[in-house]
Amino acid sequence: MIEIEGLAKDFTLHHQGGAVIPVMAGARLSVEAGECVALTGASGAGKSTLMRMVYGNYLARAGRIGVCGVDVAQASPRDILALRRDRLGYVSQFLRVVPRVPTLEVVAEPLLAVGEDRDAALARARDLLSRLNLPEALWGLSPTTFSGGEQQRVNIARGFAHPYPAVLLDEPTASLDPANRDVVLTLIEEAKARGAAILGIFHDAEARARVCDHEVDVGAFTPRTAA
Ligand SMILES: Nc1ncnc2c1ncn2[C@@H]1O[C@H](COP(=O)(O)OP(=O)(O)OP(=O)(O)O)[C@@H](O)[C@H]1O
Q1: How many CA within 13 A on the CB side of residue 197?
Q2: In this protein, which residues make up the domain named ABC transporter (predicted)?
């Protein structure tokens, strides 16, 4: 489902004399269907950089990033957008909200994008928002003014609306109370049970112990020259 081999990344600092900083080399990992793999390693080890390469936001210098039959390292922007629509979900810590779009639509949108029936998409959105304890009074409002934790729950509902075969999670329980954290971990378990391959960053060790099958220490891929 997710197969990474020989992945390398340099950052070129164009505003600092073009200095080239090698941050990753020889990265490899695989996530099978129904598995959740946690990226670990010290701050600055490259966890977020690796996730951004898998999602196609950062270009790799070398290597292969196979996601559901697409090599993201080589794919065209159009193929990456199609992959994100149908097969690869991403729950970041922060919601990027389109102004004036009501919460229910924000959550249903990924389902509508793959051609799901509108009533079914809205029903799924309502179900997720109520499981995540977002008050019904907020569903018709844009999430722009919501609290950090409310926005994170809208983002999680949106990320779990469509049953993507591959999912990236960036600290999905970061600003949640224990009850909502438990709901999110249950959503992750349900996604695994339906065969999703999940790659995530979890600073919450208990969450990692509950849902993750393996850990990959990204520090092992830090080039010596950058250490
Ligand atoms: N856009 C960028 N330009 C230059 N260097 C970058 C950029 N993004 C990340 N880096 C560098 O790449 C390295 C890895 O950063 P990254 O954010 O991936 O680490 P991380 O493991 O996610 O850290 P944290 O746990 O603190 O979030 C760091 O040395 C960082 O300074």
Answers
A1: 16
A2: 2-227
